[in-house]
Amino acid sequence: MLSLARTLARPTITRSYAARVAALHTLPDLPYAYNVSFMNSKPIQKVLTVRQALEPYIAKEIMQLHHTKHHQTYVNGLNAAEESYAKADSMKEKIALQAALKFNGGGHINHSLFWKNLAPVDAEGGKLENGPLKSAIERDFGSVEAFKKTFNASTAAIQGSGWGWLGYNPATRRLEIVTTANQDPLISHTPIIGVDIWEHAFYLQYKNVKPDYLNAIWNVINFKEAEKRLLEVGK
């Protein structure tokens, strides 16, 4: 009888373990390569050139560290926090885990959006064409340049670490610039564009000059992805 009970219980345990493993968060792939190889035409010969995908605006080393180290750390922390939460026996223990869930969960959410926010220059990075997004920016900020200037000033003014956002306010049905501290996700608005202003996102290349980083990143912003998000909230 005991043997039969163990046999019957084993599939339940296996299914429970499989469900937990399936629920684990993972590091998403970048939608572009760290390196881009292409044939550079020369008068005499073709030369294979290797160029970093988002360079010269964001260095390859920054992207690799940011993606594989920093984002991975948030993924690991979120999985650990969720596992501890599932095992917690008391409300006090669950409340104590809220900070870890918010920080690591926010880091995972924000970075997953951030990678899609970017695109190499030769893959439409930095190109804002006429369409719903450009029209909405001009309506709500006066011009694209005025929007970028205001966005950069607000984001550079963040004390410590955080994120600058172009978000859609469902109450006013307008685009607004919002900032969040640390890894707090944007909850009050629908994120359209998010820019990481943590030092790990720029310090190796731009040192402590945030305005240079913010001016440069517009050259690799994926406005098509941003416009797609805007259209989604309008459905």
Written account of the structure:
- Helices cover 51% and strands 16% of the residues.
- The protein has 9 helices and 5 strands; from the N terminus they run H-E-E-H-H-H-H-H-E-E-E-H-H-H.
- It has helices spanning 2-22, 60-87, 91-96, 98-117, 132-141, 144-156, 203-206, 210-217, 223-233; strands at 35-41, 46-52, 162-169, 174-181, 190-196.
- A 3-stranded antiparallel beta sheet has the order 4-3-5.
- Strand 3 (162-169) and strand 4 (174-181) form a beta hairpin.
- The protein is globular and about 55 Å long.
Determine the N-to-C terminus distance.
Answer: 58 Å
Number of DSSP helices? 9
Helix content: 40-55%
What's the β-strand tally?
A: 5
Encode the helix/strand succession as letters.
HEEHHHHHEEEHHH
Oligomer classification: single chain
What Rg is obtained from the alpha carbons, in whole angstroms?
Answer: 22 Å
Query: How much beta, percentage-wise?
Result: 15-25%
> Which consecutive residue ranges, at least 5 long each, have pLDDT under 50?
1-19, 37-50
Structural class by SSE content: alpha+beta
* Biggest sheet statistics: 3 strands, antiparallel
Mean pLDDT: 87
Task: Give the overall shape.
Answer: globular
Q: Biggest sheet: strands side by side, in what order?
A: 4-3-5
In short:
The protein has 235 residues and is of the alpha+beta class. 51% of the residues lie in helices and 16% in strands. The N terminus is likely disordered.
